[in-house]
Amino acid sequence: MKPTTDVARAAPLVDELLFPEAPRWRAGQLWFSDMIAKRVCTTDLNGTVATVAQFDEMPGGIGFLPDGTPLVVAMATARLLAIRDGCAAVYAELGDAARGHLDDMAVAIDGTAYVGAVGNMSADTEGTPPGGALVRVTPSGVVSRDADNLAFPNGAVLTDANTTLLVNETFGERITAFDIGEDGRLLNRRTWAALPGLHPDGLAVDELGAAWVGCYREEKFVRVLQGGRITDVITTAGRWATGAELGGPDGHTLFLLSADTDQRRFFNGDSRGRIDTVRVDTPAASP
To answer: Which residues participate directly in catalysis (predicted)?
Structure first.
């Protein structure tokens, strides 16, 4: 394993956020949800932040339809919202299939969305909330609950030319993989990497198939190979390590999203977040 890097040695990009999460690199910008601020933002590599849309509740995962329309998870009301001209409109209602709060999401190149339903969360939740699942929303708007008994599905990413879905099970301490069938259904569930003692949150995949993972409770980002071997560690002492994304013009920029908070403070809206960057050897995987 390479020497541990302290995030203080990384290049600061954006400060004065509340709780940045769900980063996606697209068309020269990093998209992310500033969850407690209830907004979706973009930033360029100069750290110039723009608010794309403001919401009445916390936004979660972000993805894009084939025509470029951004989709955003509305976490508390279990809906997908489409952002057009700075305004958000309901794209799909997931309530019956979700059975609680939503979190992260991945959107396939055909527009199929895979959304993590995490059960009901609060400041007093201990351990894993019941009801974790993956909900699929087809391009025609059909909603189905495709996978049950997931321990807080988080950090979803599509890999292998959209034939595999990786999802973190935060309280299962593992990354789980699914094959994607020709009809978009999730098949062949399996453990991609066991991460004992770690609580994986955000997830990004490089071109060698390794995953950068934010381990929020352990306050560090790790690069992990399929099977579970960790090759690199970046620590964020005193800060939750949440979202991770690879991007930049050449794909070699690793975006590190972190926040100074804890569970009770988070639900009370008390958090101070930022985004840092590190140059890495292996670039982002191709879409």
So the answer is: 201
pLDDT at 263: 87
- With beta carbons less than 8 A apart as the criterion, state whether 48 and 14 touch: no
Q: 103 near 134, Cβ under 8 Å?
A: no
Is 201 annotated to bind ligand? yes
Tell whether residue 21 is among the known ligand binding residues: yes
Q: Are β-strands 59-64 and 49-54 bridged in parallel, bridged antiparallel, or unpaired?
A: unpaired
Q: What is the mean pLDDT of residues 29-38?
A: 98
Each residue's pLDDT tens digit, 212-239? 999 999 999 999 999 999 999 999 999 9
Bridge partners of 159, per DSSP, are: 164
Neighbours of 76 (CB within 10 A): 15
Return the CATH number of the domain spanning residue range 11-279.
Answer: 2.120.10.30
Pick the catalytic residue from 34, 103, 201, 206. 201
Predicted pLDDT of residue 156 = 95
154 is in an annotated binding site: yes
Residue 95 has φ and ψ, to the nearest 5°, of -45, -55
For residue 274, give the H/E element and its range: strand 272-279
Average pLDDT over residues 42-56: 97
CA dihedral (159, 45, 33, 167) in degrees, to 10, reads 20
Q: What is the mean pLDDT of residues 69-89?
A: 95
- Give catalytic status of residue 232 as yes or no: no
